[in-house]
Amino acid sequence: MPPSLSVLQTAATAPLTTVVSITIAVTAPTVDPSAPPDTITKNINEVTAAVVSFTEKLGQCFQQPQACDANLVYVTGSSGSLGLRSFLDESIQNGAYLSSNTRGSYIVVEQVTFPSDAAATATSCVFDAGITLGPADSAGNPTVLDDSTGSRQTQQSLVLVDGEWRVTETTILKQLGAGNQCPSKS
Q1: CB–CB of 64/58 below 8 Å?
Q2: pTM of the model
């Protein structure tokens, strides 16, 4: 029978407790022992900057799909580059493109991991408020194909190419819903 709530246990009368220690493995890039202590922070900052730059290039690419070189957005020959080229070809065929008015769209990199020295993954939240436009209407104005706003969690895979972090693939992990569901951009 458990003690009543009015009885307090003292250190002398309290039952013994067993403490269990758990070790969790953490994967980080190999760091040269002679490198400055901020090497990991530098790598994280470089990957974060690469993901933000990639997102800007992707938007600019969709604003002018006919002039876009998918290999400047993704690593040449990567699945991301091939997928973007297919998307752009379909967009050109349908006359679809992204408005230059991004209406505050942004990306926040939430986590960066390094499976190896030359590979990284970034988990990000994307607030997408871009407007997809289409062929001109009878008045000569572009038609609005999609002006919805939404958020999604994505993962970018990156590799080092000539000392620069470049995206090879983007995967949508989860649709977060309409409107801005992402943390504030810092």
Answers
A1: no
A2: 0.75
